[in-house]
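Lecture notes, part 5. Sequence design as translation. It can be helpful to think of inverse folding as translation between two languages: the language of shapes and the language of residues. The source text, in structure tokens, appears below.
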């Protein structure tokens, strides 16, 4: 729909500009005085000047119409190009990701998960909670709880518990 409106606008602008330019050029060549001042101005234009005025009008109106259309539709065309590039990159990124995952996961997970579950978790879980909790809780709870609980409980609990 947008392309059709651009073409219609271009043709309308071209025809209007062509008629205007051709009539102006034709009238100029028709009334133009001859080179020699002693000879009266030519009444009839020659075929060459008619063709020249036609070609001049055609080129001039084509260029003007194209420039007018380009300036008018520059923002829209740029937006369409950006949307197209964005969609192209987005679709190809998804296609690449799905292809990559389809080849990667069946090969990687059967080898990774058993070694992860059997080697990492048994070594990580026994060391993490005892060492972390024994070092964190004694330093965190005594300074924080006496200052936090007396201000927290009277203000928060009466408003929270009934609801």
């Amino acid at each position: 729909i947008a392309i059709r409106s651009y073409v219609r606008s271009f043709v309308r602008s071209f025809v209007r500009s062509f008629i205007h330019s051709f009539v102006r050029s034709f009238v100029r060549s028709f009334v133009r005085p001859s080179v020699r001042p002693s000879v009266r101005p030519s009444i009839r234009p020659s075929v060459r000047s008619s063709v020249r005025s036609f070609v001049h009008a055609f080129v001039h109106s084509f260029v003007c119409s194209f420039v007018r259309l380009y300036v008018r539709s520059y923002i829209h065309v740029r937006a369409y190009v950006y949307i197209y590039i964005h969609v192209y990159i987005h679709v190809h990124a998804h296609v690449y990701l799905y292809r990559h995952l389809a080849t990667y996961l069946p090969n990687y997970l059967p080898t990774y998960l058993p070694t992860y579950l059997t080697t990492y978790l048994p070594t990580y879980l026994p060391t993490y909670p005892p060492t972390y909790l024994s070092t964190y809780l004694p330093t965190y709870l005594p300074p924080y709880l006496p200052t936090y609980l007396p201000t927290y409980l009277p203000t928060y609990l009466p408003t929270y518990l009934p609801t």
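The translated text above is only one of many valid answers, since several sequences can fold into similar shapes. The chain has a mean pLDDT of 69.
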